Amino acid sequence: MKRIITLAAISASVALILSVTLLAQNPPARGMRWSKAAPFPEPEEELYGTVINGKFYVVGGFGFNPLPPGGTLTLNPQPAAGGNAGRAGGGAPNAGPCGGCPPGLIYEYDPGPDKWTKKKDIPVHVHHQAQAAYNGKLYILGGCLRAISGEGGTTNVWEFDPVADSYRALAPLPVKRCSAIAETVNGKIYVIGGLEPFENGMGTRVTGRNEMYDPATNTWTERSPMPTSRDHAFSGVVNNKIYVIGGRIGAGNIPATSNIDVVEEYDPATNRWGPIKDRMPTPRSGGGAATYNGRIYVGGGELQNRQLSAAFRALEAYDVASNTWEILPSMPSSRHGNAMGFIGNRLHVVSGKQEGGGANDMTGDSPHPYATQDHDVLEIPSGTQ
Questions:
Q1: Residue-range domain boundaries for the chain
Q2: Could you give the percent of the chain with pLDDT greater than 90?
Q3: Which fold has domain 34-64+99-379?
Q4: Contact of 315 with 333, CB cutoff 8 Å
């Protein structure tokens, strides 16, 4: 009898430990439930999302094309402005794999009919661009033309009018920039961090460069640089302050093992960076971010090293007022390069690659082996920050 009681006690202890562990990995939903919405028409990685007037705009794409049957290992040409070369089905016949042949796509999602509508491509196709909204327009800033590098970046800046489905070229960035973040505060757009070339125009370095664009005057002004230089970061704006979260301090694609958890606050009014904030629970880079009700939500991201090439399911929220993080119910699937945005209190997570960058996904019999078409939605209950 004593043996039975002892075994029962041990079993109960093990069960308690397992339940606590599982609870940490999968926190209580607290009324939050993931649901599905219309799948993304052209699954991609390195997508970025921006909500304008209640519609969600998903932009970019890295553009990795597999080798077609009987094809040869010949890279597709860089697409011409507004063209589709470099996309599967575009460019030279039987062209081979091309990593970083960006499709330059823009899709508009309307939650009313739950429908995606394709808009005109970015005039010069890029990936890893920065983007921000202002006055009903979408601003697309910099990005990479081909590989993920400083010298492979561009200074192009475009204003996209969703209603007219048209573009207008604006004053270029002072320096080529790839994988930066952009946020709008009080009518000005700030482009921060990313990859840039050295002074001779060659090579790649990680930068903390901070430049302000004024749409009213179509001019650029240099501002106080970010203390922690980084690329592939997350960001958001709360109370007119910009928060730059995580990212990586290595240059390019492969050093994703240099992921960091640093959170820094920039006040455009004083042009000052504050002390480091509460660090993010899961250091990562290359995922999606969106802001709602004083909190910045960070979802997905990637990690690469010699042993693995992985993507995250983690969804975490940074509360600016309390300077704390909360771990939320994980996304239905892991992914990086996913677009995120809030329409009302509903968080939309769109597409992305289900492993780290650089290789095809192991998704079984998926019709989209290089990215997922999933469009997942998480409703934040009323009363929840």
A1: 34-64+99-379
A2: 70
A3: Neuraminidase (2.120.10)
A4: no
